[in-house]
# Entry
Amino acid sequence: MISPQVQEVLAVTTTPQAIRRASPRTNRAAARPEPAAPLLPSPEPVRLLDEAGRRVSPECAVRDYPEPPTETLRELYRRMVIGRRFDVQATALTKQGRLAVYPSSRGQEACQVSGVMAVRPTDWVFPTYRESVALVSRGIDPVEVLTLLRGDWHCGYDPAAWRTAPQCTPLATQTVHAAGLAYGEAHQGRDTVALVFIGDGATSEGDFHEGVNFAAVFRAPVVFFVQNNRYAISVPLSRQTAAPTLAYKGVGYGIASEQVDGNDPVAVLAVLANAVEHARSGHGPFLVEAHTYRLEPHTNADDASRYRSMDEVETWLGRDPIARLETYLRGAGALDDAAVDAVAAEAEAYAADLRTRMNADPVVDPLSLFDHVYAQPTPQLLEQRAQVRAELAAAEEGEA
# Structure
C-alpha cells in the first residue's frame, strides 16, 4: 500500500510539466555531446588564402590550421611551376604520338604537390593514373613516370625504391592496397603513413568503401585524399552523391574528415600535414576532400565540351593555384621577379630534357613479352616464345 507521503510526491512529479522537465531525451541532449562531432569536417572548405592570394583574416578562417613555413611554401611554389610545365609538355607529347594517352592534372597542382610534400620519403604514396605531377614532384624520373602511359612496360619506376605504388587505372582499387600496407606497417611497429590519392568518381566504387572501412576498424594509418574535381569523366558530382560533401563519407565509417579549398596551396598543405600527423600518431585514418577542378579534358581522348561549358572553365581559370601562391609570396616579400624567372627557367629546362629523352625510341626486346607471366612458364608460353624468336630470326635474315 502506498503511503500518503509517497502519493503526494507522485502527484507533484507526474504532472505533464514535470515529465517534460525530467524527460530522459531532453536530459541526454543537454548532457551528452554529439558523438560524431570530432569526426565532422568544417562546414565550409578550409581556406587560408582567398582567390586573389591574400591571407584570410583569422576571424574569417573556418578552422585554425598553422601556416607552413615560408621556405616550405617557396618550395611548394617551385614544384608546382615545374609540375605544370611537365604536364603541358606531356600533353604535347601525346599530340605528337609519343604517348598513348595522358590524363592532365593542370589546375590540380596544389593537391598533387602538397600531397607528396606532406609525407616523408619513407611513407608510401598510392597514386591514380592522374598523379603524374605528384610523382615527378616526389623525385621520380619523368621518363619513368610516363613509361606506363607510352605503353613500354608495366610501371617504369621501382615502387619499392620510391615507396610509391604503380599508377592505378582501375578506380579505387588503390584504397584497399593502401589500407592493407598501412595496417601491415603498423603491425610491425613502423610509423609509416600511406597517402592514397582518390578522385571523386572513385568514392562511388565498392573498393573505396572496403578500404575506408578496413582502415577505420583496424585504425590503419592511412590518409584518404579525395581530389574532387567535379567530374568522374563526364558524370558531374550531383549525379554521384547526395551527401553535403564527399568529406562526410568518412564520418559514416568513424574516421576524422576535413574539406579544403583545393586551389589554395597553403591550406591544402596545412590540412594534409595535420591529417598525416593524425594518422602517424596512432589516431587512425583521416579523410580529406579537396575542392578543385580539372582544366583539361579527362584525357586527350575526351571531348569535355559535351558536358561542361567554357564559362565554367573560365571561372576556374581565375582560381589558378600557382598564381594564388605567387601573389601571396610576393606580398610577403618571399618571392620577387628574379626568383620567379629562375623557377620558370628551371621548369623550361626540365621540359626540354624530357622532350629530348622522350624523342628517342625506347629499346625493347620483343621476347620480354613472355617474362614474368608465370613463375614457371607453361608449355604453351614456351611454344609461343619459340615461335616469336623464330619470326625475329627470319626477319633479321631477310634484312641481311
Notes: The radius of gyration is 27 Å. The chain is about 45% helix and 10% strand. The beta strands are 124-126, 194-199, 222-228, 231-232, 235-236, 256-261, 286-291. The longest strand covers residues 222-228.
